[in-house]
């Protein structure tokens, strides 16, 4: 028999899960000003997928059967870790490498430079291009 949990119970479960994965914005601390996930998981060739799989990278197939790699794994393979300062005032979240946070001295140009620096590191190491998820206006 199909049954649905009460809305409050479902909402609490979702918030708990997101908090466990570092997906909620804290009210204070290093991660309270964050841009969220900053790169899309890139599409990779069959050859790149085989190479990445041999290195332990997580991969998945899209509905169109294209391979996608984990942008977070690629960044971590290049040495980026939670809390890494990428450019002045711009750090990886203390919980997730893929999310960038703004410290007091951060600027918009610093965020752009951080995205460019991180994407260049991945490309130099793997030949895989990362594309920023946030759209600059």
From TrEMBL:
Pfam families (alphabetical): MurB_C
Domain UDP-N-acetylenolpyruvoylglucosamine reductase C-terminal: 31-136
Gene3D superfamilies reported for this sequence: UDP-N-acetylenolpyruvoylglucosamine reductase, C-terminal domain
Stated name of the protein: UDP-N-acetylenolpyruvoylglucosamine reductase C-terminal domain-containing protein
Coiled-coil portions: none
InterPro entries linked to this entry: MurB_C, MurB_C_sf
């Amino acid at each position: 028999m199909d049954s649905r949990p009460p809305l409050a119970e479902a909402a609490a479960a979702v918030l708990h899960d997101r908090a466990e994965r570092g997906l909620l914005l804290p009210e204070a601390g290093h991660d309270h000003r964050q841009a969220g996930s900053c790169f899309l998981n890139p599409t990779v060739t069959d050859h790149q997928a085989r190479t990445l799989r041999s290195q332990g990278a997580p991969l998945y197939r899209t509905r169109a059967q294209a391979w996608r790699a984990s942008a977070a794994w690629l960044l971590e393979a290049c040495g980026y870790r939670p809390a890494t300062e990428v450019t002045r005032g711009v750090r990886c979240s203390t919980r997730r490498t893929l999310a960038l946070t703004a410290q007091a001295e951060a600027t918009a140009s610093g965020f752009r430079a951080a995205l460019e620096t991180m994407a260049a590191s991945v490309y130099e190491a793997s030949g895989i291009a990362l594309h920023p998820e946030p759209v600059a206006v």
